[in-house]
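ok so I'm stuck.
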Amino acid sequence: VASDGGSRLDSRSEMLSTRRLARAVPTAPAAAVAASVRDGFDPNKIFAREMSGYGLPVTYESRGTGGRSSISGITSTVFGATGYLGRYVVNHLGKSGSRMILPTRCGDNAKQHLKVMGDLGQIVDLAGLKIRDDSAIKYAVERSNVVVNLLGREWETRNFSFDDVHRDFPERLARICKELGVERLVHVSALGATLDHPSKYYRTKAEGDEAVRAAFPNATIVKPAKLIGTEDRLLNVFAEHTCKFPVQTLIDDGGSKHQPVYVDDVALAIRAIVHDESTAGRTFELCGEKILTMEDMLKMTQSIIRAQNASRVVYVPSFILKMLAAPHEFLLNRVPFPLPTPTGLTRSYIDAQGEDYLKDPKSEGFKELGIVPAKLEGVVIDYLRAFRFGGYDVGATAGQGSE
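replied:
not stuck anymore, here's the structure
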C-alpha cells in the first residue's frame, strides 16, 4: 500500500496482512444462498457489497441461530475499534456472527482483547492504517458490505488535527465507500456538533457530518451524548481527582447540561442500525434519560465514593484556564512525542463547557431502535466503588450515596 510519500509497507508485512484478509473473507458466495437467488449473480462479484443491485440486505447470507458462532452475512470494517466505544461495538457485532476487519495503528497489546470477541477466524487485524492514504483505506473496506467509523480524538497534535480526523478522513472514507459500492456506512459523530459551536472539536465534527452526508447520502449518522462506563473519561476523572486533590475545580459555574448515556447502550444501538436496513440515511441522537450538569455529575460521583472533601469545589473562570492551557497547547502541536494531557487542559474542552448538550425532541433516538437506555444509578456506575473512601464494600448497594 503506497503512502503519501510514495513509500511502500514492508513486503513481508503486506503479504501476511493479505493472507489474513484472504483467509477471513471468502472469495465466493456462501453455499447457503438459495439457488434461485444465486443463479442471478455475476460469478465475478464475490462480496455481498457487490450484490447490492439485487436488492438484498447485508444479512442475506446469514445462517445459524444468531449467536457468536453463527454467520450474520455481514463483513464489517470498523475504524476506531481500539477506542473506548470501539471495543463495545466490536463485541456486539461479533456476538451476531459478523466478520470484522479492524484497521489499526497501535501495537498488539492495545488490540489483543478484540481478537476473542468473534469466533475463530472472524476478526482480522489490519495493521498500518494511514488515514491520509486513499489506497490504504480502499484496501481496508473493499471486502466489506458495512463500514463503521468510530475515529475521533479529544485534542490536536502535530501529527493529527481535528480537521484531519473529524472532517477530512470521514469525507475521504465516505467517498471511497461510495465508489466501491459499500452498502452501509455508519458514521459516529457527537451530540451538540454544530458549525457555529465555540469549540473546534464540535465544529469539525459537524463539518465531518456534512461531508459524509454529501458523499454518501445513505450514511447513518450517530450522535451519542457523553459516554459513561468502566473506562470513561468523565466520572472516573471526577473520582480520581477527588481522591488525589484537596479541592475540585469546575469551569465557570459548572452549569453545562448533559444527558450521559451508558456506552454499552450506544454499542447496542450501532449493532441494531447495522442490522436494520431502514436506518440508512437517518440520524440518531443517543442520550440517557436524565439531564445533569457537570456540577451534578461531580457531586453524584463524590457521593458514591463517600468523599470526605465533597464540599470543596472551586469554580474557575474559563479565561484563566485558557491561559493555563496555552503553553501545553503550544507544545502539543510542536513536539514529536506524546505529552500527558489531563482532561480539561485543552482549549477545545474549555470552549465546550459553555454549551448544553441535550437531545432535540424531534430527533430519532433509542426509542426508534427499540432500545431502553440503562439508568445511571446502580450497576451502571458500580465501577466507581473502586474509589470509595473506607474501602470497596462500604455501603449496602452499588450506587448508594453517603448518608
